[in-house]
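user: can you give me the structure for this one chain? tokens are fine.
assistant: on it. calling the predictor now.
[tool input]
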Amino acid sequence: MEIILILVVAAALLFDFANGQNDSANAIATVISTKVLSPLSAIIFATILNFIGALVSTKVAKTIGGGLVDPTIITNAVILVSMLVAAGWVMVCSKLGLPVSGSHALIGSLVGAALAGFGIAVLKVKGLLLVLIALVLSPLMGFAVGYVLLITFYWIAARMSPPTVRRIFSLLQIGSSGFMAFTHGMNDAQKVMGVITLALFSAGKISAISVPAWVMLACATVMALGTAAGGWSVIKTLGTKLTHIRPIEGCAAETAAGMVLAAAAHLGAPVSTTHTITGSIMGVGTAYRLKSVKWLIGGKIISAWVLTLPVCAIGSALLTLLIRLF
């Protein structure tokens, strides 16, 4: 049991690192593409704010730890399988330059492995439905808020000269990028905190679903290291391939995504930062000019989203059944 618990913690932190690497693009892709910050400065900036954001709250961690599956039934062997499958999928997508949802990967893998191991009785259906609704709504909210914000920014900038607009929104974009990195840490690092807390509870190391301080620090640090590693192919996809981005559009997209993520973290809803920022970028691109959005690239990203949850659920379920068989 001790060995399995150690392996679960290691696999969860591996997923945390992979997620940080893929999701580093969420906060800094636009600020790099607009040349407001250099790649190195942007990554250091995002790494620091990711770390701080991860330590601010544990509401999302408690949702993952006790709101999706019954912590009194689940075992660490099942949790281990789910973490390995989720980490593997995120790493493959990062290699392909696809901004994929770590939330979908984690939740799909955990649910698939739990179902295969214990049946439907292990699932907390109400909590799972609420999380799935939040995952669906977050990119739509990102799109809508991004669209409205950019129209508002255009109205404010209408009487300014182009150099003044660029100068002002370049400064504002540094702030919006930091806001996005901070809220990313608030949401994504907490998902792994929840998994490790669930594993500790399952092993009898803690008596309640409450996140220990060392778990918070470990997840915040590893997420920050993943961000520091930088998913450059994903950064290129979000920053340059999806739509034309200037400082004013980048500021609108990052602010919109940060607002949605902050609201979700406050409610304890584990939403996808990748979905949210991509929805915001597409909303901003649509407000700028409908044809400016490269919908073919957007279609590939959406395909990766659609595939993530079922692929991870089926993969972890099959692996769990295979382990039980042998």
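assistant: here you go. The CA atoms of residues 249 and 284 lie 6 Å apart. The chain has one domain: 2-325.
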